[in-house]
Amino acid sequence: MRKSGQVTVFFSLALLCIFSLMCGLLESARTAGSRSYLKLAADSAMDSVFSRYHREAWEKYRLFLLECESDDEVEKAWKGFVKPYMDSSGWYSMDMEKADTVGIFCITDGGGQYLKQEILDYMKYGIFENMTDEKGAEDLLKNLKEARAVKRLSGSFRDNEREAVRLERALEDINDSLKQQKAYWRAAYERIEDYDGPGFRREADRLEREMNRIPSLVKTYGKRADDLKNSINETNNGLSAAQEELSEEVREALSGDTSCYGSYVNQDGERRREIEALPGQMEQMKQVMEQAKERSFEVESIIDNWDNDDEEDDGPDLSELWGSVGEIWDEADIPSLSYSNGVKDTEKQRLLEQVEGFIQTGLLSLVLPDGKEISKGILSDDSFPSVTCGEGQVLEAGLMDRILFGEYCNRFLTSFLSEEDKEVKYELEYLVSGKKTDEENLKQTVLDVLMIREGMNLIHILSDGQKREEAMALAGLITGSVGLAPLTGIVAFFIMSIWALGEAIVDVKMLLEGKKVVFLKSRDTWRLSLDGLLELGRTGTCAGGKEDENGIGYTGYLKLLLFLGEPGQQHYRLMDMIQMNLCRKQADFHMVHCVYQAEVRATVRSRHMFFGGNNPFYPVEVRTEKAY
Prior knowledge:
Helix content is 64%, strand content 6%. Strands 1, 2, 3 and 4 form a four-stranded antiparallel β-sheet that branches. By secondary structure, the protein is an alpha+beta fold.
């Protein structure tokens, strides 16, 4: 019996299609699974690579740093960790063909942004007391900038005051010369009355020599007047440029208290015209003096040649002869200025200037606590990240980021008040100043803290009418209530700025003693009187005051300086400190070799299980990256 095979053929073809579909689905699932497996293996291997972070860096600074001297080291380590996954791929059947590190970002890259990110990641878990918010940070930055601007302007106005005092001293020299000329003139006149021709001419020669000094003295006066005018113009330009950094109250106070500088220059114009007329007057008097000397020779000649043969002749009339010389001499009238110099109490002026001189000469010895020695640590290292990587780098950081950075540094770095015994002790001061020795860093940091305190103190004085009246009274004593009235205002502002500086010196001394000082002063928290200020200038010593319980300590002011500084520079200096301290146990440690983020791309060879023909292998690419 003949049978038909159509059903069998159809069923066979159907089964072939079904099996092909099933195998295709299985192959597709296996391929997708292999890609997932490969991604898992790559990411796990990268996690393993980054788990080899520097343990001491974490323990000391809570930073994750993967130390690698080269890109190949990351690639090699990654291959080592991914190999077990390749060997156990089983069903997925894959072998590593090649792997390349296509992106390595070290902690020193990016202007310090990677270090900043690690610090913020750590600090967001911190618990802080009295932590300011964004609005508070903005107000704080505004106050700090205002203090810096006020300090800068007060320094400029102090320079103007010194120029004005030098101008007054030049006027004093001219007045002294005119007084000396008057004395020589009188002495010469007395010689005429004594009929002493040689003595008269000697005094006249002395007078002429003194008169010859006048052109030089006038020239010196003119130069100092020009210097003062130029200096005041520059200061006024600085005041105009700083308007945006000053509050309305401070702007008005500064404008009112410094308007006397312009008045002084304007009134000095009248005085200068009178002074510049002196050389011409001197020349006219020299002509009269020359006539008087010639007449004296004529008188002597008449006397010597007088004929005494006539017994009834009583001789020449000496009174009449020498009187003719006196009449000529009277025409050589020495001029007097209608202005006198306006600095009468030079001792008080000198004491005030001495206070400012401490900044250049011996500020550190003045504010250093008794018995406290300065660290002799040296930070000279050409391999520091700030030297090799930090040049020209700029880092953008928000206000709260700066606040948190300061808190982080306060936690992990030492300062002048730290008890920890280290070779390089002033780490926070280094972040602020960036000098090569502990002593230089402390000096510069003290000056920077002094800048903040001086600015804030002067802002308080400008708002305190009682202190301004005290300064004006002392200025009246110094100027003696004579001379140019605006000079008293100039000296008064000088006194206020020096008073703010003296109070700042006391503040810094308290801070270095471990005491707290309030940021915004009041009458109750002000310590230094004007008498104490003069005593400070006289003795060069000062004592700290009572601590302000609600004030800010030394490290608090260091954090303010960090908040005010350039973030990128500070982050690289922090890397310097980390590298320096970690090198104590590991001499070859360098931050530039510490990886923050890496990216690896690899190609593996996988095999089709059900398809492929003569070439069942196909490549699979994978990309993995990791950052702390």
